[in-house]
Amino acid sequence: MGSILKIQGLSKSFKLHNLGKHIRAVSQVAIELREGEFVGITGKSGSGKSTILKCIYGTYRIEEGSIWYHSEKFGAINLAKATERQMLYLRKHEIGYVSQFLNVMPRTTARQLVTQAILEMNEEQRFADSETEKILSHFELAQELWDSYPTTFSGGEKLRLNIARAMVKKPRLLLLDEPTASLDHDSKLKVKQLIEQLIKEGTTMLGIFHDLEFMNDLCDREYNMENGIFLHASFTDS
């Protein structure tokens, strides 16, 4: 398997103007993912884990380093220098992101959110409708909620919908930012089943976890972070 993502010398800092401080979030991060791998990043809150994912996704612009991604459309592209149009295309068609928070357009139902995600992949309406119902059922989102607005959902329901919307697209690269943080054990198992399925279908994943034990048998490697620096990388027993 070839490399799909290669990060070299990634550094990112933030200026807190009101405090007159300059905080280094991550420093000289280097990581490489081969196609079909599932790699986990662990560490305490504030260690810089989410910053890495947001730099890959283009939410943050980096100061140093490169993020080379092997795109189906663009070939080898440095995400750190990609245009806004290129990043919008990649987010729609190749790179998925799951966070603990659900940002949605008002007056868009749960069903519409998932269906729209599938239609973005140039699938037909009938297929999108069918896959939407399958994945909402998989995550045991009550059927009476399908045509409701997510603003009325509980935190756990919003997170399950967020995960469903990202995973249903079967992206080439999936970024997971604490995807099971507020879920109960049964919901975590549902996430794990879909991760296992996506791995078999070739999706590459980079995930953040406070405790990787739950995903340990699926994970190929684990990177541990502290104060924005990778302390060590280890291979799992899978």
TrEMBL record:
- SMART domains from the entry? AAA
- Keyword Ribosomal protein found: no
Name the keywords, alphabetized. ATP-binding, Nucleotide-binding
Claim: ATP-binding is one of the keywords in the record: yes
Q: Name one GO cellular component term.
A: plasma membrane
Q: Which molecular function term from Gene Ontology is one that the record holds?
A: ATP hydrolysis activity
How far does the signal peptide extend, from start to end residue?
Answer: none
The record, for InterPro entries, names: AAA+_ATPase (IPR003593), ABC_transporter-like_ATP-bd (IPR003439), ABC_transpr_LolD-like (IPR015854), P-loop_NTPase (IPR027417)
Q: Which residues form the ABC transporter domain?
A: 5-238
Its recorded name reads ABC transporter
**Organism expressing this protein natively:** Robertmurraya siralis
